[in-house]
Design goal:
By secondary structure, the chain is mainly alpha-helical. The chain is built from five helices and no strands.
Length: about 140
C-alpha cells in the first residue's frame, strides 16, 4: 500500500507541476551556458566508463560462453566480441542522432506541461491499480 500511495503522490505532484501557472523570469533558475563536449571527449568518457564498469565484464563472462562451441579458438571469441561492439556502436549512434533532434522539442514549455500531465495520469493509474490489486 505504501508503494501505491507513493506512485499516486508522484502522479499528483506531476499533475500539479503541469497545471501550475508559468513561473516568471525572476523565479526561473538561470542556467549557465555549458559548452558541448567535443566528440573525442565524449567518446573517451564513454569508453572509460564502459571499460571500468564491472557489469560489462560480467556480461561477457556469463553470456558469451553460451555462444561458443567446445573447440572454439580465441579468434572466435574476439569475433563475437567485435560483432557485439559494432552492434552497440550502431545502436548508440542511432540513439544519439534521434535524441539530438528531440532535444529542442523537450525544452518547449508546452511540451513539458503535456509530458507532466501524461506522466501524472499514468502514475496515478499505476498507483490505483496497485492499491486495488488483490493478492492470490
Amino acid at each position: 500500500m505504501l508503494g501505491a500511495a507513493y506512485l499516486i503522490w508522484i502522479g499528483i505532484k506531476s499533475l500539479k507541476s503541469a497545471i501550475s501557472t508559468k513561473t516568471s523570469l525572476n523565479e526561473k533558475v538561470r542556467e549557465v551556458p555549458r559548452s558541448a563536449p567535443s566528440l573525442i571527449g565524449a567518446f573517451l568518457e564513454g569508453f572509460v566508463t564502459n571499460t571500468l564498469n564491472p557489469k560489462v565484464s560480467m556480461f561477457y563472462l556469463a553470456a558469451f560462453p553460451q555462444f561458443m562451441s567446445q573447440g572454439s579458438s580465441a579468434f572466435d571469441a574476439y569475433t563475437l566480441v567485435t560483432a557485439h561492439a559494432i552492434v552497440n556502436f550502431l545502436w548508440f549512434a542511432l540513439m544519439v542522432m534521434a535524441l539530438s533532434r528531440v532535444k529542442y522539442a523537450a525544452n518547449n514549455e508546452r511540451f513539458k506541461r503535456w509530458l507532466n500531465s501524461i506522466t501524472g495520469i499514468v502514475f496515478i493509474g499505476f498507483g490505483a491499480k496497485l492499491a486495488l490489486l488483490r493478492s492470490s
